[in-house]
Structures are given as structure tokens and as C-alpha cells.
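Worked example 3 (structure in, sequence out).
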């Protein structure tokens, strides 16, 4: 059976070329088409379709497909899955060929496929089996005991000691979906904004899928952790009595999508490898702009807010981007100085919409880097994960003979000095000002944990330094240790 269906407008990370727009029509293709640049497209069962565009908007495409559709009982027609697009599995972190080899080679097609894959915000999820990564098991077939434990944990979701790692295990890797859906229901936002549950569920599933779970740190568990922290901040008296339902919905969605499609490398890496995203966003908030555009793409693809007036939907997308862009760590000092000025002048008025939005930005910034403020058992795990991601980037840079980025060289950096430096220069100033704004038990708890964690890393650093110095001494003078061992018993006999 065949059925024709149309996806909503998809925003792109790359403008449609002018020579394409000049055709004033649509690009038709079939299963044998090389439209997407794949040299060996997978079997598409004679699927046919078209891509149409509007010359007035170079950042959007309309995609129509005519293809095989399976009939499901009590559900109706099931449209083509995202994973059926004929893209090859390409690692985002693959460097441009000319950078690794010094000149363009015959393998330039790989670079183009990476661009197209990211432009359409599609990933070949079906290729997980080819890569040896098993598909995740749906929630509904989880063991009832695990599901019950996950529900019990959600009853204490506002606890700062919430163990997101345990929760992710209990939900079989679906912590972001379960947590976000629970919070939206708890606030009554699903009913208030009349969100369609099928569209909402599909949106959350696609959001979780578009996080790269092979990243040690920037994955869906991190997004779930930030969402849980954001909820804790939204519960603070200063915010809970002032924020509107729109603010809360915006804050939760921004937390869940703030690192969407993160490649596991930082902005300087994209700039020095001349990645097209860096050129597109002019080397400014490159990753944050991509996270925002990816989130907007999923909102439009699922039609989550399609029932709202067009102006309201656009405002939601714009405000969502404003929150996500605030997480750019390179803009930390600007936001912190504005926040400090407001507090010094006592000029924050939360009845003002722009002031509430600024406080939401600061709350999301705190939630994004709150790992040093968690209890040691949780904070240590996050520190190890983010450091490993840094070191993986450094390994890639060294492999391709690029300058290794700061903090990414595993030969000259340790997890201890990285964490102590981050707490001293980034976390402590931010959370100190947040405690001035919201002087509550939670703020004091966070500062207390950060102080203890910093002391713990300092103790580990001293131990590592002592061990390394002892190893250097024994290497430099191997007879010194033996002579000292002989002198000690001699001295004991004399005494």
C-alpha cells in the first residue's frame, strides 16, 4: 500500500543554493537517485518523492514522500521512519580531508555527506546494528520492578541529591524522555497548552535520539541532569512565585534541548577544522546556534506547537534560542557582569518579562555547569566523563597533527587540575552570585558541596604529585632507595 504524506517545513543549517532556487520548482527523485550524495543508496522499495522550496526563504525545505507504509492495528498508517533515509554513517568528528592530508583527495565525498547529514538533522539510526550498537528497548517492556523504582525516584525529583545515573538505568536509557514528560505533567503544562500527547512523545523521543550517546559527557543523560537541576531552580521561592506557565515550559524545553546534536568537540575545534557550521555562524556561538536550530527543526517536524497561532509559535522558538545561546561558556563573563550589576543595584523586577527571561538564562547557565555542586559521588562521575571527552578531542587533534586544545592534552593535564581550575574561575563566581539572588537552603547546599568537592580534588592532586615525585626520584637515582632501606635498620639497631 502506498500513501502520500508531507513533512512540515524543516529549518536547515545551510541555505539552499541560489542555482537551486532559480529552478522555481521541485527536485523529484526515486530510489535510484543520488540526490543525497550516497554512492550506494539502500533499498528504498521504489519510494518516490520530491523536495520543494520557496525562493523567499532559503533556509527551509518542504519534503514530500510517496512510499511504502505499513498498516498497524488501532494506529492507522505509520509514516516512513527517520532512519530510512539513504545516508551513510559518518562520524561528525571526521576532519576535512584537506586538513589531514594537506590537500583535497578523492575522498571529498565524505565531507559532503557529513554536511548533508547535519543539514537535514537526520542520522542513520538503523546503522547502529552495523556499528554493533544494539537498539534501545522501548519503555513499555521494561521489568515492572524497575519501572516501579523509576516512578518512586520521580516522586523525589526535586531533591538535589537525585541520582540521574541510577534513574537512567531504571528507565533503560530513557531518562530524558521520562523525566521531561513527568515534569511537564506535574506542572499541568500538557493540559494548559493543549499539547497533543502523541506529538509530545514523538518530540521527546527524537530529542533523545539526536543526542550522541557515544559522547562521554554531552549525551542525553547530561540533558536529563540539566533538566532536573532546572526544575530544582524553578522551585526556588524567588522564581516559583514569579514565573508564568510560559516561562516554565520554555525553561524545561531549553534544558532538555540545550546540547542537542552535540558532536563531542568544542567550538575552537570546529573553527580550526574549517567546519561548515563554523562558517555558517561566523565563528560565534557555533554549537549553541546549532543546538537551537536542531531543536526548532524537531518542533516543526513533530508539529508540537502547530495548533498555536503562528506568532506565538515563532516567539516560542525565538525565546528558546535566547535561552540556549546563553549557555555559551565564552559569553560567561558578559552574563555574569550583567547579573552582578542587577544585584548590586537591586534592579531585578520579576514582574517584568525581560527580567524574568534573564533570570531564566542565568538559571539555565547554572543548571548546565552544576556538576561541581552535586554530592561527591555524582560530581566525581561527571568530572571523569567531561575530562574523558576533552581528552578524546585532544587525541583526535594529535592524530591529525593539529594543535591540541587547552585542557584536551591527557599528557599534560589531569582531572584534578582541570576541575580545580573550573571551580575557581567559572563555577564559584557564578554560583556565588546566584546565592546572592536566591539565598536559600539549596544555594547554600550547592556552595557547600562545591567547597568539599574542590578540597577532595585538591587532596587527590597532592597524592598524585607525591607519587609522581617519588617515581621521578627512584628513576633518577635507583641506588638512593636501596641505600635508605639499608640505613633504616642500621639506625634502629643503634638506638
Amino acid at each position: 500500500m502506498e500513501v502520500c504524506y508531507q513533512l512540515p517545513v524543516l529549518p536547515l543549517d545551510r541555505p539552499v543554493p541560489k542555482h537551486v532556487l532559480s529552478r522555481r520548482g521541485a527536485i523529484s527523485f526515486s530510489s535510484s537517485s543520488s540526490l543525497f550524495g550516497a554512492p550506494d543508496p539502500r533499498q528504498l522499495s521504489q519510494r518516490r518523492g520530491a523536495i520543494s522550496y520557496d525562493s523567499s526563504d532559503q533556509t527551509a525545505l518542504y519534503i514530500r514522500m510517496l512510499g511504502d507504509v505499513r498498516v498497524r492495528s488501532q494506529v492507522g498508517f505509520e509514516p516512513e521512519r527517520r532512519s530510512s533515509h539513504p545516508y551513510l554513517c559518518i562520524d561528525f568528528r571526521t576532519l576535512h580531508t584537506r586538513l589531514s592530508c594537506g590537500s583535497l583527495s578523492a575522498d571529498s565525498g565524505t565531507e559532503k555527506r557529513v554536511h548533508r547529514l547535519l543539514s537535514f538533522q537526520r542520522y542513520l539510526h538503523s546503522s547502529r546494528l552495523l556499528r554493533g550498537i544494539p537498539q534501545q528497548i522501548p519503555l513499555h517492556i521494561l521489568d515492572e520492578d524497575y519501572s516501579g523504582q523509576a516512578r518512586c525516584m520521580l516522586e523525589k525529583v526535586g531533591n538535589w541529591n537525585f541520582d540521574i545515573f541510577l534513574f537512567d538505568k531504571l528507565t533503560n536509557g530513557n531518562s530524558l524522555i521520562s523525566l521531561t514528560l513527568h515534569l511537564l505533567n506535574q506542572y499541568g503544562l500538557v493540559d494548559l497548552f493543549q499539547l497533543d500527547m502523541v506529538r509530545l512523545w514523538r518530540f521527546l523521543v527524537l530529542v533523545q535520539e539526536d543526542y550522541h550517546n557515544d559522547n562521554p559527557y554531552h549525551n542525553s543523560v547530561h540533558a536529563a541532569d540539566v533538566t532536573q537541576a532546572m526544575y530544582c531552580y524553578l522551585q526556588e521561592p524567588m522564581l516559583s512565585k514569579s514565573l508564568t506557565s510560559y516561562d516554565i515550559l520554555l525553561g524545561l524545553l531549553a534544558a532538555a534541548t540545550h546540547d542537542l546534536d552535540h558532536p563531542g568537540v568544542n567550538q575552537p575545534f570546529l573553527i580550526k577544522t574549517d567546519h561548515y557550521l563554523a562558517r555558517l555562524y561566523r565563528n560565534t556561538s557555533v554549537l549553541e546556534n546549532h543546538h537551537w536550530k536542531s531543536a526548532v527543526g524537531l518542533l516543526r517536524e513533530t508539529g508540537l506547537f502547530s495548533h498555536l497561532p503562528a506568532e506565538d509559535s515563532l516567539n516560542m522558538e525565538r525565546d528558546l534560542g535566547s535561552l540556549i545561546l546563553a549557555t555559551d561558556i565564552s559569553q560567561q563573563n558578559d552574563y555574569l557582569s550583567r547579573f552582578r550589576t542587577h544585584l548590586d543595584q537591586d534592579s531585578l523586577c520579576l514582574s517584568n518579562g525581560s527580567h524574568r527571561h534573564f533570570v531564566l538564562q542565568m538559571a539555565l547557565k547554572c543548571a548546565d555547569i552544576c556538576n561541581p555542586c552535586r554530592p561527591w559521588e555524582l560530581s566525581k562521575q561527571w568530572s571523569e566523563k567531561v575530562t574523558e571527552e576533552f581528552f578524546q578531542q585532544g587525541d583526535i587533534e594529535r592524530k591529525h597533527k593539529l594543535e591540541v586544545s587547552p585542557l584536551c592534552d591527557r599528557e599534560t593535564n589531569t582531572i584534578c587540575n582541570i576541575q580545580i581550575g573550573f571551580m575557581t574561575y567559572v563555577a564559584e563566581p557564578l554560583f556565588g552570585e546566584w546565592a546572592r539572588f536566591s539565598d536559600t537552603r539549596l544555594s547554600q547546599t550547592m556552595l557547600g558541596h562545591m567547597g568539599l568537592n574542590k578540597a577532595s580534588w585538591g587532596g587527590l592532586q597532592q597524592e598524585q604529585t607525591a607519587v609522581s615525585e617519588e617515581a621521578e626520584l627512584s628513576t633518577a637515582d635507583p641506588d638512593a632507595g636501596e641505600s635508605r632501606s639499608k640505613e633504616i635498620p642500621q639506625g634502629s639497631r643503634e638506638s
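Notes: The mean pLDDT is 79. The chain is about 55% helix and 5% strand.
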